[in-house]
Every structure is written in C-alpha cells, then in structure tokens.
Design a protein that fits this description.
single chain; four-stranded antiparallel sheet; 21 helices; elongated
Length: 686
C-alpha cells in the first residue's frame, strides 16, 4: 500500500469524526433538559398509581405537590411555638396557591405539630416543584429549640432531584479519574493512557447526542440513573476494547514495520472478538425492552447506545490516532520492529497450572465457594422505603423521621383515590368502611373524576399501610388507588414481573449467541452457568454488607434484575475471549488441557486489566448519593472481579480441562483427531 494512502486514511478518519461531533453537538447539549426522575416516569401506564397521577393532572389546578410542615420541641411545644408555626403556615398560604386551608395536627405527647400542605401551583414541572419546595423551606424555620422541617412526597422528590442533578459532573469526573489512574498503571507510559481516555470521552459525548435523538424519535425515557449507567458503560466497555486493541497493536508493531500495516493486522486479529463481545452485550441489554417498568425498559436502548458508541470510537478513531502518533506513543516502552518482548513470569500461567493439576477439585471447590456466597442473598434487607433511599439524610428525611417518632400509629402521607364523580359519595362511604383507614375526605372534581384523600392508620410504606392499599384496591373496583406509597408498591410488583419475563429471555439470547460463536453447546452452557453463579455470589456478598456494613435499610426493587442483565451481558464478554482462544488452540492441534492453559496464559493479562477497569468504573457508583446506585455499582463491580479472577481463571479453565474434547460437543472438535477438525486456524483474537 502506498505511503500516501497510509497517511490519508487516518487523517480522513479524524476529519470524519470532526464532522460527526459537529453534527451531534447541539443534541448532546440537550440531553440534560429531557431527563426526568419522577416515579410516574418510571412506572408503566397500566399501573393504578400512574393512572391516578395522570388524572390528577387533568383536575382543576393540575398535578398536586404534597408537603408536611413539621414543628417539634423535645420538651413539648409552647404557646409561642404554636403561634410561630401558625404565622409561618399563614405566610406559606398567602404566598402560594394551596388546596384547602392547612390545619395543624398535634401529636399525642404534645412535642410535635404537623401541617399537611398541598399545592397545584407547580403542576408537573419538576423545576417549578423544586422552586416551590425551596420557597416553603425558606418560610419555615425554627427558633430557640423549636425545630421546623419540611417533609412529605414533594420534599423527598426535590431532594432526590438534587442528587440526580449532581450526578452528571461528579460521576463523569470520578470515572475519568479512575480510568486514567488505571491506564497509567497498566501502560506505564506518560502519553499512551491519554489516547484511549480522550477517545472514550468523545464516545461519551456521541452517546449523549444519540440518546437525545432516541428520546425525540421514540419517546425513550431518560433518567439520571440510565444516563449515568450509559456513561459508565462507555468508559468501562470502551476502555476494555481499547486495552485489547492496544495490546494486539503493540504485538504487531514488533512483527510489522509500518504502524499503519500493524494496525490493520491488529484490527483483523482482535476486531472480530470485539465485535462479538459488544454484540453480546448489546443483545443482553436490548432484552430489557421486554420489561414493563419504564426505567428498566429504557435502560436497554441507552445502555446499548453507550456500548455501540464506545465500539465505533475504539475501532475507528482510536486506530487513527495511534497510527498518526506512531511508535513513540508507547514511550518509554517502545515496541521496536523485530524485537521480542521480555519474558516474564505469568501469574495466569501459575493459576492455570494449579487449575490443570486437579481440575475436578478446583471446580467443585470454586462452585462450593460461590454457592456459599450466594447464601448471603438470604440476608438482603427488604425493599427500601422512599425516605431510606438516600445515603446521607437530607432535610426531608429528618422531617419524616420526626413524624414517624411523634405519630407512630398514623400516616401523614395520604393515599390518593380517584373515583368517577357520579359515585364520589358512595366511594367515600366505602373507603371509610375499609379496615386500616383512619380518615378520608373529598378533594377536587373535574373531567368526570373526583379526588379523595385517604389517611391510613399506619406509617407510610409499612406492611399495615400496604395491606390497607391492597384492601382499597380490592374494594373499589371502579376507582384507582395511587399516591407515594401506592407508587412504591406498584414499583415493587412491576419489578417482580419484569424479573420473571426478562431473566429467561436474557439467558436464552446469550446462550444462542454463544452457540453460534463457539459452534458448541457444552461450552456456552458452561459460560452461561458461570455468569449466573457470579451474579448469585455478588448479590450474596451485597446481602452480607448492605445492612451490617453500609447501614442500608433496604434494597432497590430493580437491583436483582439490573445487576443480572449487566453481569450476564458483561461477564460473557471475557468468556468469549477465553473460549475462542481455546478453540483456536484446539483447531491448531493442541490437546484439550494444553489448549485451555495456553488460552488462559494468552488472554489472562489483558483481560484482567480490562476487568479491573470495568469493575472500577462501576464502583464509581458507590460514591453517589442514592442507595439504589450504590447497591447496583457494588454488586456489578464485585461480580466483575469474581468473574475475572475466580470464575474465568479457575472454574471455566478447570471445567474445560476436566471435560476435554467434550467441551466442544456436538461440534466437530468434540470428536475429531488433532488437526483434522477444521481448516487451518484463524489468527488469535486476543
């Protein structure tokens, strides 16, 4: 190939990327504007609580923001305290359009006074809701031992929104810093680490533009969680692909004189494996489209966008930059043409040798260990309550804790019932006769519906209140029961349904892809069983630490499903690299045990580095302010490490050694003699 073409192709690729970035730039900047984190955006349209919220938007005044103003003094409220509370509540009522006159409700011990407050002023606009809540907080303040706090669903939503709004910058900066440190340690070069990191950043920007396009074209919901996960996947998966490509490129530079030709050889060698890997991840994530919960369903396309943008950038932009920078980008460890790498003792060679000596013992011991860890799932705390969803307690949570202590036998958080206006009186009477209902009163009427506010005789999201909500739904066949507690119940039920539907589809799709790639049935079953075992063990470790160590009072309902999808899809990646190399060695005539150990030695170092980077990027989520993100990041990070250093290294290798050629059953390799199974081996992928 002429020297002119060797120069023009990389420069042409750079020019193409400049055009692409210029095109997506306006869209990427708009992604934050379409991000929503209301619980009704997460729930399916068929849920009772979603229908309630939608009908409330059509009632006079629109959607309602509900707050509880809480005044408390440890020794008991004084007359002056009550006067102060009355003045401040009157000020709130004078400055904002409230639905009804606020009435103070004293606690039995006289220490606390609460004022339930509701307003249609913000409507469904999250920014207006936050402004309303903050205005109320400025008006409500304590004096000389009197504490004044603002709680309720609206305040909890505002505090959650502030956490989500703060994710973008810290999440991105922390991820970049973690990946940069690991790349510096892996490459031991002052320059090389910067190239894949810059490319990953460009891929992240591209993914933001594509995600905005998906939202505009198909109405895909964009939440703080899904956009954060997308960024994690871009940097995690993208850096993995970069590690594989750079490793192979370094090898080819020792064999091929010109960087351009070396890169072509590297892409031919590792490109198919990277494509297969990303395709498997994308297929696993797209299975989430079968979920009923919006937040689960829309996580699939956004996660897929992140993976595919990372793939495209690492297979086009990264090669162009590396070729233009030449060999000097590897300084001080420059791979000279014709040189051989310095021989070093391989940790993975030692691991493979130990797994190969007694494969059945290693396999049974590892399986027993994973099974024991999985028992930790029995210790997982129950579903996290709305006020327990924060790592650090915001003002709304302290207000709800004060209420729970002062009103242990009642709820300050109403259950909303929407009933046909013509049957409002009959429905109200029926509600008052339901066990567990403390009080009920009619609210707004419009568009053929009447709103009824119900207070349960039990604390919010307690088992007793949940039972009351279920009794209301059973009794009121022609009405809808919603509100914050009902939304959490619908969230839990929908997640349970999604697990039953999505998990089998993910397993089947991944298994079929592996069968097609490896041309075997046994090897794909081993890899699938391995990643499922990793998921169970990682979730079990979470059960051992979430409550006792982290102090979490519950787990997010979506933790099981999302951690399963990510660990299965991402974990199979490394299995593909290992098994495909094992298959190549078998095609070349190696005995089964030798093929397995050679594959482990060949792929161990680079895949271990990739596993560390991927685990570290997900571990960034443990520094975020929401329990659901901390739990998800922890389980995935632990699972990736288990897969990288235990399951793939020991269990998959020992199972392959123990089964011998049967690992390739029913394909030709399972019965063919050496060198007669298929044609000459392909080039190695890793």
């Amino acid at each position: 190939m002429g020297a002119g073409k060797r120069r023009s192709v990389p420069w042409g690729m750079l020019a193409l990327w400049v055009v692409v970035l210029a095109f997506v730039s306006p869209f990427a900047a708009e992604l934050a504007e379409v991000q929503h984190d209301r619980i009704t955006d997460y729930l399916p349209a068929s849920a009772d609580s979603t229908k309630v919220a939608k009908i409330q938007e059509r009632l006079p005044g629109g959607g309602v923001t509900e707050l509880v103003l809480v005044y408390h003094r440890d020794g008991g409220l004084t007359a002056a305290d009550r006067a102060t509370a009355g003045e401040q509540v009157a000020r709130v009522a004078g400055e904002h359009a409230l639905t009804g006159e606020p009435e103070g409700i004293p606690s039995a011990d006289g220490t606390t006074l609460m004022y339930p407050v509701a307003s249609t002023e913000p409507g469904t606009d999250e920014d207006r809701r936050d402004a309303f809540v903050n205005d109320v907080r400025e008006a409500v303040h304590g004096t000389d031992g009197l504490s004044a706090e603002v709680g309720g669903p609206g305040a909890l939503a505002t505090d959650a929104s502030e956490v989500y709004d703060s994710l973008g910058g810290p999440l991105l900066y922390t991820t970049v810093a973690v990946v940069a440190i690991l790349l510096i340690l892996i490459y031991r070069s002052p320059v090389l680490w910067l190239v894949p990191l810059v490319v990953a950043g460009i891929a992240d920007y591209l993914s933001m533009g594509v995600a905005y396009g998906l939202h505009q074209a198909f109405g895909t919901t964009v939440s703080g969680q899904s956009s954060g996960i997308m960024t994690i996947l871009v940097f995690g998966a993208g850096t993995d692909y970069a590690l594989l490509l750079v490793s192979r490129y370094r090898e080819e530079l020792r064999r091929v004189e010109r960087p351009y030709d070396a890169m072509r050889a590297a892409l031919r060698g590792c490109g198919p494996a990277v494509l297969a890997s990303s395709g498997t991840v994308a297929a696993g994530l797209l299975c989430l489209l079968t979920a009923d919960l919006n937040s689960n369903r829309d996580m699939g396309p956004l996660g897929t966008v992140g993976v595919l943008c990372a793939l495209v950038a690492m297979l086009t932009l990264l090669p162009a930059l590396l070729v233009l920078l030449g060999r000097r980008v590897f300084w001080p460890l420059i791979p000279a043409y014709g040189s051989t790498p310095r021989a070093r003792r391989s940790l993975f060679a030692a691991m493979g040798t130990s797994a190969g000596r007694r494969p059945l013992t290693v396999l049974l011991g590892g399986a027993a260990l994973l099974g024991a860890l999985a028992l930790g799932t029995l210790n997982l705390p129950g579903t996290v309550k709305q006020q327990d969803a924060f790592v650090d307690r915001p003002p709304s949570v302290t207000a709800m804790e004060t209420l729970a202590a002062a009103f242990p036998e009642s709820s300050a958080q109403p259950v909303d019932v929407i009933t046909p206006a013509a049957r409002a009186d009959a429905t109200l009477a029926a509600i008052r006769g339901v066990e567990g209902v403390d009080s009920a009163r009619k609210g707004r009427t419009g568009a053929g519906w009447t709103e009824i506010s119900v207070l349960a005789a039990a604390p919010p999201q307690s088992a007793a209140e949940t039972a009351t909500i279920e009794r209301l739904r059973d009794r009121l066949a022609d009405s809808y029961v919603g509100g914050p507690s009902a939304q959490q119940l619908d969230l839990k039920d929908t997640n349970a349904r999604d697990r039953l539907v999505v998990v089998p589809i993910v397993l089947l799709s991944v298994l079929l892809i592996l069968v097609a790639l490896l041309r075997s049935l046994v090897a794909p079953l081993i890899l699938t069983a391995a990643v499922v075992a990793v998921w169970g063990a990682a979730l079990g470790i979470g059960g051992l630490v979430f409550g006792p160590l982290f102090g979490f009072a519950g787990t997010d309902p979506g933790l099981g499903l999302l951690s399963f999808v990510f660990l299965v899809a991402l974990g199979v990646d490394y299995g593909i690299f290992l098994m495909h190399r094992m298959r190549e060695e078998s095609l070349g005539g190696a005995e089964p045990a030798a093929a397995a150990l050679t594959a482990l030695r060949s792929t161990g170092g680079v895949i271990a580095s990739a596993g560390l980077v991927l685990a570290a990027t997900f571990a960034v989520l443990t520094n975020m302010g929401l329990v659901q993100l901390v739990e998800l990041g922890f389980v995935i990070a632990v699972g990736v490490l288990l897969d990288t250093f235990l399951v793939r290294t020991y269990l998959v290798t020992s199972a392959s050694v123990a089964l011998g050629r049967k690992v390739w059953w029913p394909g030709p390799l399972s019965r063919a003699p050496r060198r007669e199974a298929e044609s000459a081996p392909e080039r190695q992928y890793v």
